[in-house]
Amino acid sequence: MFKKVLIANRGEIAVRVMRTLKEMGIKSVAVYSDIDRKSLHVNVADEAYPLGGKTSAESYLVMEKIIEAAKKSGAEAIHPGYGFLSENEKFAKMCEENNIVFIGPPPKAIVSMGDKVTARRIMQEAGVPIIPGLEKDGLSEDEAFEFAKKVGFPVMIKASAGGGGKGMRKVENESDFSKFFRQAKSEALSSFGDDRVYIEKFLEEPRHIEIQILGDKHGNVIYLGERECSVQRRHQKVIEESPSPFIDEEMRRKMGETAVKAAKAVGYYNAGTVEFLVDKYKNFYFLEMNTRLQVEHPVTEWVTGIDLVEYQIRVAAGERLDIKQEDVKLKGHAIECRIYAEDPEKNFMPSPGKIERLLTPSGPGVRDDSGVFEGAEVSLYYDPMISKLTVFHRNRDMAIKRMLRALDEYVVAGIKTNIDFHKKVLTHPDFVKGKYDTTFIDNNIDSLLERDDKDRDVAIIAALIEYYSKEDKPSKKPVNKSSRWKDYAKNCWTI
Predict the structure, then answer these.
(1) Which member of 292, 314, 367, 402 is catalytic?
(2) Where in the chain are the domains?
(3) CA–CA distance, 181 with 134 (Å, rounded to integer)
């Protein structure tokens, strides 16, 4: 087993990895930019090395600096967390070339699954269902348009090298096709340096359901149930839960076995996620594979009792999985809310600044994976996520109530957050019934942004007017200059 591991990341995920390393008796090494000098992950680590710079491009994305820090510290392995270099095959190769273990999948699997066109082709050959679509190098607008007419509108145009909703456009009708096709290509080029796009049939009432898999270097791969991630805004996940309220045991088994098939098709090991789109008829189709630890991994850890980071480290060290598929038993229900420093009433704009006061929820079945503390600065240079709040209870109804209790306890002052927005989602009748898909937020955005305290400001002004209007008037009541306690004391003194 490793004695020292460097975490090539920041914020909550760096702290999350360090906690497991500590429990395993492994020393942790942090790296940090100039802005993150006083960050929580730096304080939690056993050692810390500066990278310099403010932006991620000047610090956490500079591979040479990360490798140099690992060598200086004597770290035998690097955990990339998520984002930054976690799905960069060049960095994974650099680690190998410098005799440092990359805690992640093999570079070849990263390459295969990183390009969506290549991934679709591999999945098709492996017998994994994919959404009817057309992909080819140099796909022209005319070819894409002919395909759209053939399968019928609406269709989705997606960036081949994309992710996170960048370079993605839904086209409802023929008249919009040309405009959105060009927009998708332009955004793909600016976001990924690659303007290739492909086209897919748009699914009705689509749900985003993903399967967590775990594999070792000895050819063993298992699945750890699913996560429902359909509550999204602009293709970014907002709330996740496990198990999904939409699928049954038989469908879970089929999706799980398909995910294992997909992972084996690219020789995958370590933790990974196979994402599917599911239509209202419960047909599921391969969407993409994330070759890293997911942000929402805690919900899987709640329902399986398995520490995914611990298994990532053990697999990277060459150990065999000591759990088989039949050992995986899902229990209870877990929900995750991503707490962001953002202002939902201003189109979810980031809300950077100093956290003046912070009170995080706790109690039975509550976990808050955070990278901040009271007095910390939320910077504009990085993702504005404050923490991942997850809860666990014996069933979905109780898990929702527990999450609402936890959100009520969560106090963040000095910056805006989306805490109240989460409460609106969790109490929406359709969410409570489990009747939602990926259009849920877009279709309900007005009601989700309504404020319970919309008359609060008016009430405060009225109260102040009433108070000050009385303050200058002499009171008609006699002033009571004494009290029962004073009278009692006087009597005591006179005795």
Answers:
(1) 292
(2) 4-103, 133-201, 207-449
(3) 14
